[in-house]
Amino acid sequence: MAQKEGVTGQGRIKTEDSLGAKTMAGAPSAGGGVVVEVREKKGPLRAAIPTMPFPVAVICLFLNTFIPGLGTFVSAFTVLCGAHSELISERGVCCVFWLNVAAALIQILTAVIMVGWIMSIFWGMDMVILASQ
C-alpha cells in the first residue's frame, strides 16, 4: 500500500511528537518520509492489567519475579480498590478482577515448565511500564 508524498488531506494531526512539532499521520514529514501511527492491539488478559501507583507496581514486579503469579494476584485486588484498566469500561470491575486472577493462575500452573515464570516477569514489567506512563 503505497502513498503519494503530495497528499496532505489524509490522517489526523498528532500533537504529541518526539520533536514537539505537529505532523499529520500519512503526510510527508520534514525528512521526506511518511509518518505512520502504530497501535498495539491487546488481548483481554493483557488489556486487563491495571494501572497502579508506581511503588505498588514495583512490589508486584518483585513478587512476580520470585513467586510467579503472586504479584499478578495482588494486582487483581488493586482493581477492586480503584486501579484503572482498559477493559473496565467495556466489561466491568468484576470481570477485570477475574481476568487478572485467571492470569495469575495461568502463571502459577505453568511456572513448573518455566513458561509461567517468564510470563510472570513480563507481566510485572508491563505493570511498571503502565504505572510510569
From TrEMBL:
<keyword id="KW-1133">Transmembrane helix</keyword>
<keyword id="KW-0472">Membrane</keyword>
<feature type="transmembrane region" description="Helical">
    <location>
        <begin position="54"/>
        <end position="83"/>
    </location>
</feature>
<keyword id="KW-0812">Transmembrane</keyword>
<protein>
    <submittedName>
        <fullName>Stum, mechanosensory transduction mediator homolog</fullName>
    </submittedName>
</protein>
<dbReference type="Pfam" id="PF15795">
    <property type="entry name" value="Spec3"/>
</dbReference>
<dbReference type="GO" id="GO:0016020">
    <property type="term" value="C:membrane"/>
</dbReference>
<dbReference type="InterPro" id="IPR026673">
    <property type="entry name" value="SPEC3/Stum"/>
</dbReference>
<feature type="transmembrane region" description="Helical">
    <location>
        <begin position="95"/>
        <end position="123"/>
    </location>
</feature>
